Amino acid sequence: MVKRIVDLxxxxxxxxxxxxxxxMEGAEVGDDVLEHDPTAFxxxxxxxxxxxxxxxxxxxxxTMANLISVLVHCESRGSEVILGxxxxxxxxxxxxxxxxxxxxxxxxxxxDDGTMDIDLxxxxxxxxxEEIVFPTTRLICLENTHCNHGGRCLSxxxxxxxxxxxxxxxxxxxxxxxxxxxxxxALGVPVDRLVxxxxxxSVCLSKGLGAPVGSVIVGSNSFIAKARRLRKTLGGGMRQxxxxxxxxxxxxQENLPKLESDHKKARLLADGLxxxxxxxxxxxxxxxxxxxxxxxxxxxxxxxxxxxxLEEYGILLKQTGLSRLRVVLHHQISESDVQFALSCFxxxxxxxxxxxxx
Length: 358
Description:
By secondary structure, this protein is an alpha/beta fold.
């Protein structure tokens, strides 16, 4: 039996803190479908204020948050959304925008930093004169931070430029802001400034913020009114959700200040991994809490084998390719855990027998 576990699979694996559990136990609740849950309203209002938007809506997951946002902006089936070829909405959300909404994804290549070239975005917008043969472009989606590109941050200036393109062509802009607070901390820019150009934003509560469940969508009052109806359609009307929202309010207060430490620990781990012969990390790309580790051909191991070997040491990771691993830091990973993980990587790559057991 492994004595010590360091779970680096995602920042979604955190456990509720004692403060969160106490807040959940004592939460004032009501029927949120009837818009009578005071704790849910408090969270939604607070998130909208932080993001500089008019209103917010709690939903059970980031996938539902993005799905609702896309469907509100693309009300007609046969609409089209422009988004990155490597974006979370396109890759990891079960094709929901197409399956459930009849929305066509038009992908533009993501650069290494998570951006899409502005001219390529504009070129992807369909000519309204050809609507008889083309889907109708209605929406552009960005992702900040960009998960598949190592938690890279999109600047406010870049987002503004995309917003200008959207307005020029009468389109809407949605930001998948699952880790938008990580971007804000890393860039030193207020979060409302990062999403100023957006018509809607989805914010995950259970990733960097470490709450147990949920996301919040923010936007205009009219957008949120439509989103609330769609949430019910999709089965997201969950009645006394104040119990969950109470934990999220604690996360905003307690865990938001810890994100900078998460980033520092990620850079510490990245630097250490890059020094291990057989492993390679582009340390310059580690801006927030996500690290991608490349396994060199000469190392004598593979991603699947290294994952298995590290699990025997108590280190849990995600394989993202034949020679690629993903590591994610969160507030419940200590500096001691980082040092322990580095020692386990060193031993596993060198084929040293595991001693982290009975």
